[in-house]
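Q: How do we represent a protein-ligand complex in a form that can be generated token by token?
A: Start from the inputs.
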Amino acid sequence: MKLYSTNNTALRVSFKEAVFNSMPQDKGLYMPVEIPQLDAEFIQNIEQYSLPEIAYKVASVLLKDEIPARDLKALIDDAINFEAPVVKLDEKTFVLELFHGPSLAFKDFGARFMSRVMAYFLKDGEQLLDVLVATSGDTGGAVALGFLGVPNTRVTILYPEGRVSPIQELQLTTNGQNIRAIEVKGTFDDCQTLVKQAFADDELNARFRLTSANSINISRLIPQTFYYFNTYAQLKKQGFSDVLFSVPSGNFGNIGAGLLAYKLGLPVKQFIAATNMNDTVPRFLESGVYETKPSVQTYANAMDVGAPSNWIRIMDLFNQDLEALKKVVTSYRFTDDETLAGIKEIDQKYNYVACPHTAIAYLAVEQFRKENPQDNSAAVFLSTAHACKFPDIFPAHIGAKIEIPEQVKALESKPKHAGQLGIDFNAFKEYLLSKA
Ligand SMILES: Cc1ncc(COP(=O)(O)O)c(C=O)c1O
Ligand SMILES: N[C@@H](CCOP(=O)(O)O)C(=O)O
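Then emit the structure tokens for the protein with LJ64HWYM bound:
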């Protein structure tokens, strides 16, 4: 597999280089030079395969010989060792539960695959790998668990003070070992900017071997394609051929992976990018003007992103052709009041408790159906996190239905350890240098 930069299509790097560099020097993002089509026979018979089998097929077609077959298979079996059930809510409405991994969010797919790929490529005696990650809530927890105890790696998590839920904060700050957390007086976008500044800093690059565990890293995206294929397989088994996905979106890595799956040959009819009031993308699709805004705080906190990193990848997948993209992708935004109403509606209609991010994806399906009454597709909305991560959002009668998983109960007795910083890059740099 060779990759180029969205800012330089002549560049060529290997998958290993892209994984460790995270981002090209020119500040673009890595994209595969070739997006091969999965063979028609595989797609026609996809319902006969299990999730790990599908994952292996997709990864091997994309990665080619970057990781030998037997190693890739073992790596995938180890990383993707949990379920992604497609739950039927009514005749044509399904929720894809992506929160059955250790951190209770869809990020486990990307983080576990990435940590194992990095561990695979790391050689004994190499310089310590410093993994930087900015989180608005869920990525940090998944990356922490993915890398916990991985030899020769150290993870630094930056999160916005007061903007992650208490459970998310415990997941970030109670790990110890090779994981450390920094609470930043700012927004998620500020955290993301600090991390990107670190990658561009000569002194830090000379001193440390820096890499990113955010979705700017291509190894986070590839494993997220697996569950789109697997869901299609589950629905095909039930006789559906027209499928649409509604994806709660913040940094647009998740829907970016879905669109990569589409370009690999997954026959999806429609993607819906569902956002909260951090609505850079829906505004862009309406107006054609791409204008980022400082993020605003919402109930769906992990989607509080004003400058979505992966949008440039999505435009690149469609060769910057906005009209072509709009044939496949539509986007809706929802306020907090609407999100809460969505949570109540899903509970009432289906006796199902959805986290605020998931509720936004559900609302987007309803909106799409209202605007396209002739559309007969099976609609899948992605449930990206376990509801227990956001206990303060739910009315008491709904909150009472949420079962608290054992791993969350275990966190409550653990002490929080986090550094504190502002949004000044020099202070962050000083912090990194002082803890070298
Ligand atoms: C629960 C949840 N839903 C949705 C999102 C948005 O996903 P993406 O950033 O891939 O668009 C996130 C964060 O990434 C999240 O943690
Ligand atoms: N919503 C994310 C934000 C981090 O973005 P990613 O693109 O690295 O997934 C989170 O939960 O932290």
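Residues 388 and 404 are 6 Å apart (CA to CA). Residues 218-237 form the longest helix (20 residues).
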